[in-house]
Amino acid sequence: MNALQQHYDQYTAEDRHVWQLLFERQLQALPGRAAPEFMEGLARIGFTADRIPDFRQTNQVLRRLTGWELVAVPGIVDDAVFFGLLAARKFPATTWLRKLSELDYLEEPDMFHDVFGHVPLLTNLSFCRFLHQLGHIGTLHASDAGAAELLARLYWFTVEFGLIRDAGSGAARIYGAGILSSAGETRYSLGPEPTRQPFDIAQVLDTAFRKDVFQTTYFVLDSFEQLLPTLPAVQRQLRQAACLTESAD
Ligand SMILES: C[C@H](O)[C@H](O)[C@H]1CNc2nc(N)[nH]c(=O)c2N1
Ligand SMILES: N[C@@H](Cc1ccccc1)C(=O)O
Ligand SMILES: [Fe+2]
Predict the structure, then answer these.
(1) Res 241: pLDDT
(2) C-beta 156 within 6 A of ligand 1
(3) Fewer CB under 10 Å: which end of the chain, C or N?
(4) ipTM computed for the complex
């Protein structure tokens, strides 16, 4: 796919202000709430409040650490493209930033979500192995609607809105980028309102989700090593879903 470019010199003073505000606010909220692996990744990547990340620099670090890189895209791309990129160890990221008026919550991913939310965990080998294999499976099944919905749920309840138990305290910590990029959901996700249940792949595949509100259910991993081994069972269910869709035609 002909990748977009990040026009670094076109960022405005408002863009820089938005990045700084969101960054500083999350750096207040995340310590003690974000998974240690996220905080470690953030430190290794070296993002700061006073500089909008330059994909060229970020990619040099990512390639060295895990072989992954960011590819600039205009916005949501279709599943076949999305999974194809993950299968090539390329993560699609927007280059535009939300407006000051949208600071608290955005229904679609902007660069703060894609880069601040997703990039730090792209330094974690175990997480990257899962994402890469999910991309490979997605390219095999994305054309089938039933299978695509199951894949979207798995992606949603892990990469976007996943929680993980802190090894020491046993408390839930955040690793899902959709939470990490949203100040409101950061606090809400660990608070009393939502349901937090142990990660169970059958449950995840059976749980529908809404994109326009804070989640009402989160799934909590014990460790990132739990993710990759679930994929053979996912593939079996995707094949059944595909057969069902075919027979429905
Ligand atoms: C996996 C699932 O299809 C999910 O909605 C994908 C679709 N396309 C995407 N496209 C972009 N750019 N970013 C994303 O996070 C997604 N998510
Ligand atoms: N809700 C996230 C953006 C997002 C939208 C859709 C999916 C995932 C993330 C934010 O406010 O930053
Ligand atoms: Fe995302």
Answers:
(1) 84
(2) no
(3) C
(4) 0.92
Please indicate, yes or no, if residue 3 is contained in any of the structural domains: no
Q: Decide: 123 and 45 in contact? Cβ < 8 Å.
A: yes
Residue 2 belongs to a domain: no
Residue 17 assigned to a binding site: no
Contact status, residue 68 vs residue 128, Cβ threshold 8 Å: yes
6-61 pLDDT, tens digit per residue, is 999 999 999 999 999 999 999 999 999 999 999 999 999 999 999 999 999 999 99
Supply φ then ψ for residue 240, to 5 degrees.
-65, -45
3-state secondary structure 135-203: HHHHHHHCCCHHHHHHHHHHHHHHHHCCEEECCCCCCEEECCHHHHCCHHHHHHHCCCCCEEEECCHHH
For residue 230, the domain's CATH number is: 1.10.800.10
Task: Give pLDDT < 70 ranges for the chain.
Answer: 1-3, 245-249
Instruction: Identify whether 175 is part of a domain.
Output: yes
Mutate to test the pocket of ligand 2, among 158, 179, 182 (most ligand atoms within 8 A of CB): 182
Q: Biggest alpha carbon distance in the chain?
A: 55
Centre of ligand 3 to C-alpha 214, Å, is 14
Rounded Cα distance between 90 and 101, Å, is: 31
Q: Is 75 helix (H, G, I), strand (E, B) or coil?
A: coil
